[in-house]
Amino acid sequence: MNSISKHVVPWIKNLDPYNVGKPIQELAKTLNVSEEKIVKLASNENPLGMSPKVHSKVNNEIIKINRYPDSNSTSLKKAISDLHGVTVNQIFLGNGSNDVLECLAKTFLRQGTSSLYSKYSFAVYSLATISSGANSIVVPSTKNLGHDLSAFLSHISSDTKLIFIANPNNPTGSFISRDEIKSFLNLVDESILVVLDEAYYEYLDDLDKTNSVDLLKDYPNLFITRSFSKAYGLAGLRVGYGLGNEEVISFMNSVRQPFNVNCLAQMAAIFALEDQDFVEMSRIHNRQIMLELVNGLSSLGIKTLHSRGNFVLANFGNQIKHTKHSLGIKLFEVLLSLGVITRPVTNYDLPNYLRISVGTEEENKYFLKVLPQALDLIHSNSNYV
Length: 385
Known about the structure:
Elements (H helix, E strand, L loop, with lengths): L1 H4 L4 H4 L10 H8 L7 E2 L11 H7 L15 H11 L6 E4 L2 H12 L5 E5 L5 H8 L3 E5 L9 H7 L4 E7 L11 H10 L5 E5 L24 E6 L12 E4 L2 H8 L9 H12 L1 H24 L3 E2 L6 E5 L11 H11 L2 E2 L1 E2 L8 E5 L3 H19 L6
Parallel strand pairs: 1-11, 3-4, 3-5, 5-6, 6-7
Antiparallel strand pairs: 2-8, 7-8, 9-10, 10-13, 12-13
């Protein structure tokens, strides 16, 4: 094995795999309870599930899975084209938006090049960059852990090829306006591709919504990614897409896997796009339940960052003083023992924070019920404090 491992490219050897979090099935087995007893508030999924219309229609497509899917996702591209008013040649389909991001890295990054992204932004940007042999340049964030566009501009160098900006941002939930994005694009050289990751776009309130897609016609170096895993409720089917200029899409199609979006995912995404009422219902539910979650945390003295996504980033640092360990990890572990899955963010150098997804009303109430118990358990553990 040693003789083989020495041939692994050096930038892969120290690369940690993406941590996907604790699966419901695994925790249920550990606690010896049914899966229905587990409350998962970790992965920013839609707690309402998928549209009932999608569910009923996808069942009719199962009979076709003996055939390979349409590798070009022709029908889905047409549906996305109709929604956004772009040509089908401006659309790139992926096995989730992660796949789209990785194809961007394969297309534009190599040794001797670099990408830029905020300190507190999606971990996949780093993984995609490093796995391509390129350098990751981490840009300092604002005081509220959001994007500092001025800092981005000051970190651009001759080897910068990609700039990743999540909007709304994950895990902080921060948001930058259309005008800010446009001003930023005016100052970025056209040879650098700006990737606007809008996985949580559908959760924006009407006043916050910006039609970033219409910027594509004026900025050929803009690329927008969207996901069906969040508001559309199709996380398990893995389908996402990118919008950009036709030349960029053509190059990306050269490096993607054939048949990268399965037939059920393609059809489910088409049906999901047809039910925008469900998406709007999901947005309204998210805002209402998020407010209850934030208020509940506030009543316990726990501060949260204002979020435009379907999650909140909560700071538990004032709950226990003089801690020797990462409070976020310990709280995550204790909550697991109580049947609740959350998301620690120590990998972002936020040891006292947890990212908490907005669940159903019942799930959030249960979380707020057991949270004081979890904190009390940590307080009583003399080995911890």
